[in-house]
Amino acid sequence: MSEFEKMSLGLEFDATSSEFTELRNEAFDLLKDINSRQFEAAKPYVAQLFKHVGENTIVCPPFLCEYGKNISIGSNTYINMGVTMLDNAPITIGNDVLIGPSVQFYTPTHSLDHRQRKNWKFQCLPIVVEDDVWIGGNAVICQGVTIGARSVIAAGSVVTKDVAPDTLVGGVPAKFIKTTR
């Protein structure tokens, strides 16, 4: 099993492996191509960068990620400008999702123990955004979170826990506001 696969599964891995440098360099080259083009012209590079991208999905530049190959995006999804995805574990975005500008997706986290941070130890957990979700601008989606179908994340929220389907959440940390149905 590769070090990247271990990291993606949340297992212990060697963060100093040259494998990560190679993968980051590949992603960086594709990101340069994506971020120098608009919509249709960027699509072939988006398809190379991501593990999966559905039909009619738009990724607005600038877009940033660490590897790209851990990102799967459904069809008819719109990712606005300035979105960052730290895809050390899988990030799965469903169909018909709207992601506002400057939204951040963080799959890794570091230990509270300073000694472990000195050794670059961190844990990675996946993020899942189900179908028909709207995430407002400047929201932060933290590791291990699943956002249920048809939910709305208010702008500027920090989502640290799962969000039930058909729910509006907001705040820091994000809290239940009301149901959307």
From TrEMBL:
CDD domains, alphabetized = LbH_MAT_GAT (cd03357)
Q: GO terms for CC?
A: cytosol
Superkingdom, taxonomy of origin: Bacteria
Q: Which Gene Ontology molecular function entries are recorded, alphabetically?
A: acetyltransferase activity; O-acyltransferase activity
- One matching Pfam family is Hexapep
- List keywords of the entry alphabetically: Acyltransferase, Nodulation, Repeat, Transferase
Where would I find the Maltose/galactoside acetyltransferase domain in this sequence? 4-55
Q: Which SUPFAM superfamilies match?
A: Trimeric LpxA-like enzymes (SSF51161)
* Record function comment: Acetyltransferase implicated in the O-acetylation of Nod factors.
The Swiss-Prot or TrEMBL record describes its family as follows: Belongs to the transferase hexapeptide repeat family.
Q: What is this protein called?
A: Nodulation protein L
Native source species: Vibrio spartinae
